[in-house]
Amino acid sequence: MGGRYYQIVCVINNNVVSAMNERHQERILVGKGIGFRARKGDLVDSSKIDKEYFLKSKTIAGKLYALLAQTPESYMEIADKIVKKASERLNKELDESVFLNLIDHMSFAVSRMEKGLEFKNTLLWEIVHFYPVEYEVAQYGLELLKEHTGCELPPDEAGSIAMHIVNAEFDQADRNDAVRMTEMIHKIVSVVRYQFRTNFDENSVHFVRFITHLKFFASRFFSGKMLDGEGGELLEIVRKQYSEAYECARRIRSLIVHDYLVEIPEEELIYLTIYIKRITTPEGEAD
Length: 287
What we know:
The protein has a four-stranded antiparallel beta sheet with strand order 1-2-3-4. It contains eleven helices and four strands, in the order E-E-E-E-H-H-H-H-H-H-H-H-H-H-H. It is elongated. It folds into three domains: 1-54, CAT RNA-binding domain (Transcription Regulation, Sacy, Chain A), CATH 2.30.24.10; 56-169, PTS-regulatory domain, PRD; 201-280, Orthogonal Bundle (PTS-regulatory domain, PRD), CATH 1.10.1790.10. By secondary structure, it is of the alpha+beta class.
């Protein structure tokens, strides 16, 4: 048979099928009534094809078929647009599992919202500030959801969608670290806030540098590559001149040792103290 054609591999629902093209490449095809009364081996009416999707992993594709069988096909379109926008903004290809995670999360979030069940993302502040591009893309996703479903989800859901995008940027071995890093930074910032009883100027240079330092600190911590030089004389100077910031850094070290059973080297303690001093010193005062 010449020309382009698709032969159905399996019918997912009335509007979604899996089909093989003339080059023996499997595709997910979406279109109104494309799967109605269709059977395996039937040729697809090309006039009914609205969207075509391709996944490299057969394992993920199989799980996606099962998910799409019980989820409106519009979620696949929304997920596809989110992934394309994220890949464009981040200039990287995301892991295909993100399709499963996004569709499943969005479907559940809309269902939960329709039942009047509230969701609070305790890491929202950190996500907004640590992953601004991913959060912006997630907000775009919420707009698409509102357009397709009429359901307006809160910013907390954008935070969760952003984390799905973040996880899809990492290799499998590093995905848990992305979440753990965010949680650790949340704990550290909470300790500083509590001790100094203050809200930070999120637009200040010192605040941005503090957050950047914490991201690298957490990355070094979970990769086992912490700075391990001895503090010596510098530690003593920092301890005396920045006594309150040093005490805060020690509290953070105690928290980390308690929660993660890992000691923080003196060199890391020095840098942490200096950044805490900067973030808690009023503008205009000497550092």
